[in-house]
């Protein structure tokens, strides 16, 4: 796999380099949104700075949230462009489209050492299309922004959080331009190797903690991880599908109804490996002002929703983590963004920092939670920018965005 060092060695002055970054950060819900956690932007800076200082004309493409292939104001990267400019300490040009006329003119007009950020790449249906030809067509348009290989164009993938997506800007475009692995992707993979036994056996007990809201993504991961781990602690939005499969009322909580049978089977097959919460914090609505109640999982009211794990569950999870020697944690235990539902995530985060051995936190929201809850980041062995990407790596799956970089 060629790296950024290789690209910089051959020289980038005057060349247009397309960089895929993961700038999918949380935004405030104001009319003029601002970035509430800039961890992923900071993690993307080193590659951008190296290229700019070497004289490249840098075109950055990235996504924000999950728009459905069309522009939506709330998913605009504009607030990210502003924060990126502040952190870089240099101007960031912002194109209002991704591969349209505005983007093309701005890309053509770049001078050495200048940076252009394109609008959310997922505003274009070609980015995430299941149709190979549609994705390839969009990837061709992206690649052309660099002028193409004949004109010195190159592609750097530094979006670790998105390498598990076979999307146009992560996968297809790498086939069209000389391609290089960014420093963030390289460094993240090096740490994760230590959790897969590729660099020697994982130290046991190996405990994985899963939460968050991307339930259907992660249920598949659980199945693959079960044989590899000693304990799997499940909280966050995904625990309710498991609780439902045990016959509990889960009210209006996040539920993946078509996965209930899968959860029942996983619980039956896993012996005591999967640990579920014994109590949850419920409220009648998704709001910081709603009246909250902590109840045993057997007593969830049908008209309420579970928004955090309760204190007994935190204590039980902490006991397991206390014995652990290797820990991977992805996904908040509750809606930590709202104060009444942050205690579960805080308690589990603190317990993870107390574990011996290697502790890795993965995922944009999990990393943001650590920072928002005031927990010292240095107490973790590694904070990864990718949740789903890390999990798929740990499963042993091929990551399309990494595999394509190894092709000549
Ligand atoms: N019980 C719950 N119900 C709904 N959303 C939840 C619940 N618990 C956690 N969440 C939400 O999950 C989101 C993070 O999920 P996810 O994207 O899967 O994590 P990560 O980005 O760390 O991989 C947070 O915004 C949090 O509010
Ligand atoms: O936030 C991300 O992943 P994560 O929540 O698994 O860390 C990445 O930016 C990928 O986003 P996606 O899961 O919408 O493809």
From TrEMBL:
EC number per UniProt: 2.7.2.3
Reaction(s) catalysed (UniProt annotation): (2R)-3-phosphoglycerate + ATP = (2R)-3-phospho-glyceroyl phosphate + ADP
Main location: cytoplasm
Gene3D superfamilies according to UniProt: Phosphoglycerate kinase, N-terminal domain
Domain of life: Bacteria
Pfam families: PGK
Coiled coil residues, start to end: none
PROSITE patterns with a match to the protein in the record: PGLYCERATE_KINASE
Binding positions for ATP per the UniProt entry: 218, 306, 337, 363-366
The protein's annotated pathway: Carbohydrate degradation; glycolysis; pyruvate from D-glyceraldehyde 3-phosphate: step 2/5
Binding-site list for substrate: 22-24, 40, 63-66, 122, 165
Annotated InterPro entries: Phosphoglycerate_kinase, Phosphoglycerate_kinase_CS, Phosphoglycerate_kinase_N, Phosphoglycerate_kinase_sf
Record carries keyword GTP-binding: no
GO molecular function terms attached to this record: kinase activity
Keywords per UniProt: ATP-binding, Cytoplasm, Glycolysis, Kinase, Nucleotide-binding, Transferase
Subcellular location: Cytoplasm
Protein name: Phosphoglycerate kinase
Organism of provenance: Jatrophihabitans telluris
Highest classification ranks of the organism: Bacteria, Bacillati, Actinomycetota, Actinomycetes, Jatrophihabitantales
């Amino acid at each position: 796999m060629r790296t950024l060092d290789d690209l910089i060695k051959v020289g980038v002055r005057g060349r247009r380099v397309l960089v895929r970054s993961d700038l999918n950060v949380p935004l405030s819900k104001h009319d003029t949104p601002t970035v509430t956690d800039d961890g992923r932007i900071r993690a993307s800076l080193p590659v951008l700075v190296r290229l700019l200082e070497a004289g490249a004309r840098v075109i950055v493409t990235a996504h924000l949230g999950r728009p459905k292939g069309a522009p939506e104001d709330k998913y605009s990267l504009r607030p990210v462009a502003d924060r990126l400019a502040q952190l870089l300490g240099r101007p960031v040009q912002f194109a209002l489209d991704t591969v349209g006329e505005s983007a093309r003119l701005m890309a053509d007009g770049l001078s050495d050492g200048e940076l252009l950020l394109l609008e959310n790449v997922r505003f274009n249906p070609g980015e995430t299309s299941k149709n190979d030809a549609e994705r390839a067509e969009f990837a061709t348009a992206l690649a052309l922004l660099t002028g193409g290989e004949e004109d010195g164009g190159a592609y750097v993938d530094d979006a670790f959080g998105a390498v598990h997506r076979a999307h146009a800007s992560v996968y297809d475009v790498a086939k069209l331009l000389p391609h290089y692995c960014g420093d963030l992707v390289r460094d993240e993979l090096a740490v994760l190797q230590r959790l897969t036994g590729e660099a020697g056996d994982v130290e046991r007990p190996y405990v994985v903690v899963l939460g968050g809201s991307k339930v259907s993504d992660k249920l598949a991961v659980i199945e693959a991880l079960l044989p590899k781990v000693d304990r799997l602690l499940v909280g966050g939005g995904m625990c309710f599908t498991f609780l439902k499969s045990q016959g509990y009322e889960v009210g209006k909580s996040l539920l993946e109804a078509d996965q209930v049978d899968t959860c029942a089977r996983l619980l039956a097959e896993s012996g005591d490996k999967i640990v579920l919460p014994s109590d949850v914090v419920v409220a009648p609505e998704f709001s910081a002002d709603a009246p909250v109640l902590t109840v045993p999982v057997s007593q969830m009211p049908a008209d309420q929703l579970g928004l955090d794990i309760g204190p007994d569950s935190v204590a039980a999870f902490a006991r397991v983590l206390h014995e652990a020697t290797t820990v991977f944690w992805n996904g908040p235990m509750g809606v930590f963004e709202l104060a009444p539902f942050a205690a579960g995530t805080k308690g589990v985060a603190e317990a993870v920092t107390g574990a011996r051995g290697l502790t890795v936190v993965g995922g944009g929201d999990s990393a943001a939670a650590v920072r928002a809850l005031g927990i010292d980041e240095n107490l973790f062995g590694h904070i990864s920018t990718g949740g789903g990407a890390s999990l798929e790596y740990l499963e042993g799956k091929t990551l399309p965005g990494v595999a394509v970089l190894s092709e000549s």
